[in-house]
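tokens incoming
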């Protein structure tokens, strides 16, 4: 609590009382604390690729290297700079989302069409160890959504499914109309929705880590994740974009067997469809 006290004077400037204002600043303090934490996490995360870029360029400037070594160092610098650039893009995206500056451009859109549009990009990400299964019934009703954002949501989840199943296996994208609430779901909105499952047969996520997945910068801490590389921001952005649509996201997983991300998105109403 913050206390402010001001004397109250009459016309003759005599103090006749005091005005005391009691303000609850707990929430303000909490936000300040969160901001400070965020800045310190961001600085730390940006420093990691920067340290590596500086280290390798110093090395390259210090002396001559065989072309093959040189090539390797330059490649590392390039990869780390890319990582840095992706992180900055993600951070900008997140801060725009936080500030409410991202407006949805919602239309009646067909998931069939969006999925067709992303398959080319997806096929490029797949290794020969992966099989992609797309299961969407002909009669799935259109959703009321921002097409570019839905494309971003699906590519984020599918690229994670591929990234975090380094041994390959099936990556599935399954779409249904939501009729009964699947196990593990949070409270869902009442409106008619589609449910999208993105399922992989990869490394899985421990029960302990599942609730932390959508926290900014969270990355599961193991040697494989460290090798795979990433910013830990993709899922926070994905979740914010889904919630802007009034949808929900959650995950179920078995360590070592695979993970499923579930997403609900609202179906376009008759009114919007006739719109
Ligand atoms: P990034 O992939 O850049 O690290 P994300 O926010 O997309 O960031 O994901 C956060 C973390 O969640 C990842 O680092 C990874 O540890 C875990 N994760 C995400 N998707 C999967 C998945 N399909 N299978 C296993 N772990 C996953």
């Amino acid at each position: 609590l913050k206390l402010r006290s001001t004397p109250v004077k009459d016309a003759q400037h005599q103090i006749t009382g005091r005005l005391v204002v009691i303000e609850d600043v707990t929430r303000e303090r909490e936000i300040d604390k969160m901001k400070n934490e965020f800045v310190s996490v961001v600085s730390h995360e940006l420093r990691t690729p920067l340290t590596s870029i500086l280290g390798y360029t110093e090395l390259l400037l210090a002396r001559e290297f065989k072309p093959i070594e040189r090539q390797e160092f330059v490649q590392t610098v390039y990869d780390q700079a890319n990582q840095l650039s992706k992180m900055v893009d993600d951070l900008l995206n997140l801060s725009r989302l936080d500030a409410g500056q991202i407006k949805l451009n919602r239309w009646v859109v067909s998931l069939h069409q969006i999925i067709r549009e992303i398959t080319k990009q997806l096929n490029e990400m797949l290794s020969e160890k992966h099989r992609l299964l797309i299961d969407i019934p002909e009669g799935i009703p259109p959703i009321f959504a921002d097409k570019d954002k839905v494309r971003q949501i699906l590519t984020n989840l599918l690229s994670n499914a591929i990234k975090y199943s380094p041994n390959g296996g099936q990556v599935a994208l399954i779409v249904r109309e939501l009729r009964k609430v699947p196990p593990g779901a949070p409270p869902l909105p009442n409106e008619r929705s589609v449910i999208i499952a993105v399922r992989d047969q990869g490394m899985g996520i421990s029960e302990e880590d599942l609730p932390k997945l959508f926290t900014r910068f969270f990355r599961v801490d193991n040697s494989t994740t460290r090798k795979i590389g990433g910013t830990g921001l993709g899922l926070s952005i994905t979740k914010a974009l889904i919630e802007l649509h009034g949808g929900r996201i959650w995950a179920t997983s078995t360590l070592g067997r695979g993970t499923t991300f579930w997403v609900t998105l609202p179906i376009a109403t008759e009114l919007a469809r006739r719109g």
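note: The CA atoms of residues 108 and 274 lie 9 Å apart.
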